[in-house]
Amino acid sequence: MAGFFVGCVLVMLGMVPLVSADSLDSRENLNATLWMQTAHEYAFSTAQVYGVATRALAEARNFDSALIDTDASEAAPDAPPAIILDLDETVLNTSRYAAGLIGNGQRHTEAAWDTWVASSTMDVAPADPVPGALAFLHAARAQGYRIFYVTNRACPDAGRRASYPHPACPQRDATVALAKRVGLPFADDPAVFLFRNDQDGWEGGDKTPRRRFLAGANKVVLLFGDDLGDFLPRAEVNALRAQRPPDRLVGVEGAPSWLARFGRQWFLLPNPSYGSWEVALAACEASDKDSQACYEERLRAKYRRLIPPLLVPLAAPPAAPTPPG
Ligand SMILES: [Mg+2]
Fold this sequence. Notes:
There is one protein chain. The protein has 325 residues and is of the alpha/beta class. The chain has one domain (14-273): HAD superfamily/HAD-like (Rossmann fold, 3-Layer(aba) Sandwich). It has twelve helices and seven strands. The protein has helices at residues 2-12, 21-26, 30-38, 40-60, 95-103, 110-118, 133-142, 170-182, 208-215, 234-243, 276-281, 292-305; strands at residues 81-85, 92-93, 128-129, 146-154, 193-196, 219-225, 266-268. Helix 3 packs across helix 4 and helix 4 (40-60) runs parallel beside helix 7. It binds magnesium ion. Magnesium ion binds next to loops.
């Protein structure tokens, strides 16, 4: 009865359509979004990451390249020290987008995301900086580091040239406006933002070509992201997810040597809401990835990926010793 009452209140407030399959779909992201918006644990986690990174700035300019791409060109010895960061859920908390979907009983689509990104040109900023990010970025600039934002926000496929920036990219315009509003360092310089499709060869979401491009003229010593793709080539991420679950990687023999970079040169931000981890759980072969059929196929596949409870009883604890006499 209480649930029915709450539902009626939400419907009266216009927050939840009375009958809609999508209103159920959107609730999947409820806890993850609330965690990012209300849990002190989230803000303290990101502040912790950026705090460790801030302390690393004193020595980081002396580090070797943070890239593990074997084809990345070697920067000149006098190249300026540089930092590459992803934007969404690394520097910008976009959970208000997810909250809007939940409140309206919708799920993510490319069209909805495009509309939301465009709202950055309005008077109210639709995203806040991730806690700790701004202080770190300003400390890095003050200590002479160059800063680049490599994002999978996208320019149109058509019209790009051999060299970035793309001449007509609405998401770029909106993102730069947002970056200026929230006070990101170097936001006035369009060259610090590297978008998907920004130039020939940068189509697709693999950030490897953009990292290599930057490594040609900069000594890239720190990487920041909320997704393994912010650190590793996509093929390596896919192979990793297909071969070994995460608990078979940490602290075991034969673990990748790059794991030791986390906390020193690679800094990983929490994102429970979405990412390539989720895409890897379930695929849909249909051409319309936003279709209801595709969504339901992925949902069924996700449920099959849950790790079930153990079906054997736990061993009984050892009996307490009998007290003497
Ligand atoms: Mg991200």
